[in-house]
Amino acid sequence: MTEIVAFDNVVKRYPGGKLALDRVSLSLARGEMAFLTGHSGAGKSTLMKLIGLIERPTRGRVVINGTDLARVSRRQVPRYRQRVGLIFQNYNLLFDRTVFDNVALPLVIRGQAHRDITRRVRAALDTVGLLSHEKKFPITLSGGEQQRVGIARAVVNRPHLLLADEPTGNLDPELSADIMRLFTRLNETGTSIMIATHDIDLVEAMRYRRIVLDHGHLEQA
Amino acid sequence: MPTASGQRDMRTRLADSAAADSAKGWAAAHARCLLESLGRLSRRWIASALTILVIGIALALPSGLFVVVKNMDRLAGQWHQSVQISVYLDNDLAPEAGQQLADDLRDDKRVDKTQFVSAEQGLDEFKKASGFGAALDALGNNPLPGVIQVTPRANLAPAAVGELVAALGQRDTVAKASLDQAWLRRLTAILDLLSRASWVIGLLLSAAVVFIVGNTIRLDIENRRQEIEVMKLLGASDAFIRRPFLYSGLWYGLLGAFVALLVLGVCRLALGGSLATLVSSYDGALAIQGLGASGVLWLILAGLGLGWVGCVITVNRELAAIEPR
Ligand SMILES: Nc1ncnc2c1ncn2[C@@H]1O[C@H](COP(=O)(O)OP(=O)(O)OP(=O)(O)O)[C@@H](O)[C@H]1O
Ligand SMILES: [Mg+2]
User: Fold this and answer.
1) Domain limits at B306?
2) A67: helix, coil or strand?
3) Which of B143, B210, B213, B278 is the most buried (most CB within 10 A)?
4) Which GO terms describe its cellular component (chain B) (predicted)?
5) Of the ranges A133-137, B20-24, B300-304, which one carries the lowest mean pLDDT score?
């Protein structure tokens, strides 16, 4: 099994009738990093939500790391999500907790021992270059720093697969390039990564595969 | 750069160590959660304090009523024991015969004490007590009969006392035997009513506590909607998300019970003066009883239980409605 993500003829029609994905088949190899692009409303976030089991496909099959998601019951969703790292445009940090506690959350959820949590949170914060900020509250950080906290939180569990939905959407070009370099580094340590983005310039400056969506259809590159 | 299979091995090892730590981790997580939920309460302390106060008062009311009824019951029991039967003798009966009857009655197993009060003694006492001395002298002959005061044995049931009164009334030389017990029966009935009322009020206020806790928790969940969505996205199970809210429910119940104890204590202090006078008029034989250790324990358990129930019936429904989008 070499694919970490495999879509087979996936259709997603939202209640209300909107066809967001139309017979999409694609795959991401284990250890690969790819960009997902397309106009606004093309279906990028929908595709990500199917992988995160935030939405279920109307038809077709989604297989992640060998698991057919149709067979993951509602009760099993939490366990499944623990193995996927999700990163969002609007960071989704908890503002009443310190940077450390935000990054520790996935480990606390998994019930890890305190000693391990400290070690792994420090390692994750070190990776994103924010070790000195661990006691601060997110509100006191810049947008780029907040996004890096979000990335640290996503990788602290060492997920098989990292999904980032417009991680640089709110950032200036320089910070965006920083974040992309961070993803590159994470990919070099073996993590499979899929990044949805509008930022064509940035994508073209990097030599990774592009998956292009157009009105819910996959565009063959 | 590690190979894919090397990565997998590392993940397996991590999973194993996680399993070994999980028992300790679980206990630690619960302890942390218990304190964290207390922290949450204190962060919104005005709302929490109000909830706890309302719970406290709701718990204090039936408990207070219960204590009052319990003490009144004992008081009524004491009054029952101090009951006396007045046996009025025929007017023409000689004092010696009256004294003889009083002595005879003492042989009855149901009788504790008897005291003969002759017509003359009765008149003297009445003159002294009423101040109508001159008027009574003017009356010429003594209108009062001889009386035997009969004290039934303590712990004689009210029904048996009734039978004794009837038996005494039927004796040849007795005009009438009477026991002014109606007020006591009325008091017993009122106490019975109060005791039932304390149960009904207790049930109603318990329901109120359940709803208060439920509503507070519902608002709490509403305020933390975004946080709950994030936790679900990060793979938190329903049980994990529920836990701090359930602990909050327990804290509300426990702290509410403490407030109830405080309220009861304050009431006792406030009423202490008049209680002391009442007690001393009974030669100290009647010490006022509080809730007692078992009562306190029950109150705390009730608080915890109601807080828990209020939480459980709210939390599942509210959390199911929150899903990341
Ligand atoms: N929950 C929903 N209910 C109904 N329609 C939806 C829902 N979510 C998305 N859509 C529709 O599905 C289509 C694809 O949406 P999606 O969010 O996947 O696009 P996107 O490529 O992420 O766009 P953007 O770049 O603006 O984020 C859009 O037309 C959108 O209006
Ligand atoms: Mg989107």
Assistant:
1) 34-77+186-321
2) strand
3) B213
4) cell division site; plasma membrane
5) B20-24
Q: Is the CB of A41 under 6 A from ligand 1?
A: yes
Could you tell me if residue A2 is inside a domain?
Answer: no
Cβ distance of B235 and A158 shorter than 8 Å: no
For the four alpha carbons of B111, B117, B119 and B125, in that order, the dihedral sign comes to negative
Please check whether residue B220 is in contact with residue B252, taking contact to mean a CB–CB distance below 8 angstroms. Answer: no
Model's pTM, two decimal places? 0.73
Contacts of B233 in chain A (CB under 8 A): 52, 54, 81, 86, 92
Ligand 1 centroid vs A220 CA: distance in angstroms? 21
Nearest to B175 by CA among B93, B259, B81, B97: B93
Distances, alpha carbon B104 to alpha carbons A25, A27, B88, B114, B119, in Å: 113, 112, 15, 9, 19
Closest to B289 (Cα-Cα) out of B300, B275, B277: B275
Task: Indicate the pLDDT class of residue B12, thresholds 50, 70 and 90.
Answer: very low
Closest B-chain CA to A80: B235
Q: What is the C-alpha separation between B214 and A193, in angstroms, rounded?
A: 43
Which tens digits make up the pLDDT trace of B39-65? 878 877 888 899 999 999 999 999 988
Report the distance separating Cα B318 and Cα A21, nearest Å. Answer: 31
> Is B96 in the same domain as B147?
yes
The CA distances from residue B176 to B147, B163, B164, B172, in Å, are 10, 14, 12, 10
Binding site membership of A17 for ligand 1 (Cβ less than 6 Å) = no
- Specify if A24 maps to a domain: no
Q: Which domain holds residue A128?
A: 32-55+73-220
